[in-house]
Amino acid sequence: MNVSKLPEVYPSVVHMLAEAAHRWPDREAVACGGDRLTYSDYFGAVAGFAKQLTELGASQQRVALVMANSVDICIAMFGVHAAGAQAVPLNPLYTAAELVPILSDAEPHVLIYDALSAPVIATVLEKVTVPHVIELGTSAGRRAFDQLAEALPEPWPAPEDPATLQYTGGTTGVSKGVNLSHLNIAVNISQREALLPTATTGERILSVLPLFHIYGVAMCLHNAVYAGATLVVLPRFTPEAAFELLKTEQITILAGSPTVFVGLMADERFAAADFSQLKLSYSGSAPLPAALLEKWRIATGAPVLEGYGQSESAPVISFNPLHGKQKPGSVGLALPQTDIEIVDAVDGQTVLGAGESGEIRIRGPQVMQGYHNRPAETAQALRNGWLYTGDIGELDTEDYLFIRDRKKDMLIVSGFNVYPREIEELLHRHPKVLEAAVIGRADDYRGEMPHAFVTPAPDCELTAEELEAYCRENLAAYKVPRAYDFVDALPKTGAGKIHKLALHERAGSP
Question: How far apart, in whole angstroms, are the C-alpha atoms of residue 297 and residue 460?
Fold first, then answer.
């Protein structure tokens, strides 16, 4: 695969870290509370931890990580790769019932966890056999940086070697393991850098995103090392903690998700927060309503650049460029060496023109190797060199991509296709709405009907009658929700996505 037109592509993220330690040994690399490491120490800790893993026989095996945000997970992620193993990062908030089938599928040689997950892991280990188990953290008396080494284990990873087995969030079904090679990940870092170049002069990136999630890894963990930036890790997102770090750590880049931006803007401290050093923010993981993008830009003076991706593409597919036209409501342009086509959502072959909605399919060097142990699902997702994303979108005449919905979320109401995101975008523009999500419910007459869940804005009284009138004024009749449920907060996954399966369960719909 020709990657000559991209910014530097490393053989693996391990090579990338080694280069950062060589170029900026005394620069602060990662900070989390009192834990602070220079790039020299970061590299030494990764080398030392990788040595421990190789002594356990982890090379060419899988290593699962069930950890919350910390310096330990940063070192452990790089350490697993440096040991020649495949990382399997998992949500530390998962229950035993969620972890057991995943770990049974992944069959890790080593399981690394922290105090947050310890009680659940004890239950899991009664049902799943893992040869080696390591607890990290202050409560365990063992940290990932306890043992430093001067050199990484040999050999270093090759581009074609397995790097990560990333399990999908499972918000629309059973979680699947996405096999990614070192090339998939390393080339995607450089593809993203082509549209969003990160200055190498010492940016300070705030990681409020979970580092078990591929978006947090790409936009925080790997992004920081590529540019020699300082990664400031927030163990658990709260608006109060984020506002404090924005000020005290002089944050220049914030990588967030809709949940983060909504939470910050809804907080009473938002108006007085210190955004003086902030240059830009990234948003991904889920669509961010255009109205919120503009509200954030006006309040902070720093734009939010929205992008699009999924685990199967390591993960970034498109982004609004840092230097170039940025379109609110769009997830930007295809990354270099990435082709995006919109095809008929039914036949999957007919290529549609500008302004026509259909399924998004992509091809490029970042596309996964396939799903672990799932040949049928792999064959369905990877067809004739294309990755079929399962998302509905359209390209405009300038090739900017707009996400309209998930293919699986599309409703058929009285024979018409209805995309919940269109309704959600409208509801978000209502001044009394903080958050909104729309699902489909079975209907004997129409086939399906839209059902809206709404969180009112603080100190606002909102009625279903108000929303009904608002939607009827702005939507075709068949798109208007037939039910409105008011909730204090929408259920979220660990990655900050709205958990639509939980909404279906609450609504009693299939």
Answer: 23
